[in-house]
């Protein structure tokens, strides 16, 4: 009697079955690892916060975060995090959590700032002012309450109030480049170029010289003082030849000064320094159309479309040819 033979097909079938069992086993272990935590008692705020962060919709987050208000283990920081996760979609519940955070830690500046943002989301102007007022009392030298006031004012289109808030913030942190640059730009936007230039002058030595020259050049360009702006921006790119923004703004200033050739060269240099961005060539194409250089504009747009085929519609919208 002959013994059974292991045909190739049988061996392949066994290996396939073994492989399938292995895959199913791995998938089963992974499923258990992910499911077990859902059945464990969850009395730690960190667990609720972690699950809520992994939940996309607000309704799903509510069931994990709202109970933290009554969880004795939840710290003020935990409650602030929960409120932040609900701020956009469920501001009323976020407000309750932030108030509880305030009760547990009345001296936390971060809680007052969060309350101000939540109240703004709920369109409760008085609540916003009260929260910002408490924040200022808690930290008189901290610029963050005024910076937040500037944010909220600017969002509402109240540039004057935003500028006043930034003035107070800058007085609390004189020489802070982040606050100073924002304040200077807003002063320029308000039509106060000399005040803006004074602010930027006060930042000398506090930020890279080339970037400061670009900010000063922007003020002059906005005021139509294009020749002066060109001089400052040329200094900027000499100090930092790889500063993309310097070459870009120099191109705009040159065009405003009436030198289209120099403008093109500066914008092309900005493009060479950052070939992943469409802004420089897109702007060049627009300026070429304005100058009546239609053949050059067609070539520039064609170059952009070849380099960024996935952005073709946006490119054609930015640079419309007659």
From TrEMBL:
Repeat (TPR) residue spans along the chain: 210-243
Residues spanning the membrane: 20-40
SUPFAM superfamilies associated with the record: TPR-like
InterPro entries: CellSynth/LPSAsmb/PSIAsmb, TPR-like_helical_dom_sf, TPR_rpt
One Pfam family named in its UniProt record: TPR_19
Signal sequence, start to end: none
Classification via SMART domains: TPR
Keywords: Membrane, Repeat, TPR repeat, Transmembrane, Transmembrane helix
PANTHER family the UniProt entry points to: LIPOPOLYSACCHARIDE ASSEMBLY PROTEIN B, TPR REPEAT-CONTAINING PROTEIN PA4667
Name by which UniProt lists this protein: Tetratricopeptide repeat protein
Organism field: Corallococcus macrosporus
Biological classification of the source: Bacteria, Pseudomonadati, Myxococcota, Myxococcia, Myxococcales
């Amino acid at each position: 009697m002959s013994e059974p033979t292991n045909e190739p097909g049988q061996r392949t079938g066994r290996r396939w079955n073994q492989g399938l069992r292995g895959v199913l086993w791995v998938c089963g272990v992974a499923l258990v690892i992910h499911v077990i935590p859902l059945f464990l008692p969850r009395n730690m705020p960190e667990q609720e916060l972690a699950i809520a962060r992994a939940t996309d919709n607000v309704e799903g987050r509510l069931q994990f975060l709202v109970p933290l208000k009554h969880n004795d283990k939840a710290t003020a920081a935990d409650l602030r995090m929960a409120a932040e996760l609900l701020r956009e979609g469920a501001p009323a519940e976020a407000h309750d959590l932030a108030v509880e955070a305030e009760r547990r830690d009345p001296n936390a500046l971060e809680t007052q700032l969060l309350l101000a943002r939540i109240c703004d989301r709920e369109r409760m102007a008085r609540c916003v002012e009260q929260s910002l007022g408490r924040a200022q009392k808690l930290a008189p030298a901290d610029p963050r309450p005024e910076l937040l006031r500037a944010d909220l004012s600017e969002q509402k289109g109240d540039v004057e109030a935003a500028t006043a808030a930034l003035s107070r913030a800058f007085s609390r942190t004189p020489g802070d480049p982040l606050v100073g640059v924002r304040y200077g730009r807003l002063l320029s936007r308000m039509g106060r170029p000399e005040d803006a230039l004074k602010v930027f002058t006060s930042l000398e030595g506090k930020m890279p010289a080339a970037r400061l020259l670009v900010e000063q050049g922007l003020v002059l360009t906005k005021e139509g003082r294009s020749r002066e702006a060109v001089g400052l921006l040329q200094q900027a790119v000499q100090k930092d030849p790889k500063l993309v923004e310097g070459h870009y703004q120099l191109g705009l200033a040159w065009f405003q000064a009436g030198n289209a050739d120099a403008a093109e060269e500066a914008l092309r240099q900005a493009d060479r320094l950052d070939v992943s961005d469409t802004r420089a060539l897109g702007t060049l194409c627009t300026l070429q159309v304005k100058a009546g250089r239609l053949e050059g504009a067609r070539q520039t747009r064609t170059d952009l479309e070849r380099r960024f085929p996935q952005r073709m519609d946006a490119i054609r919208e930015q640079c419309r040819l007659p």
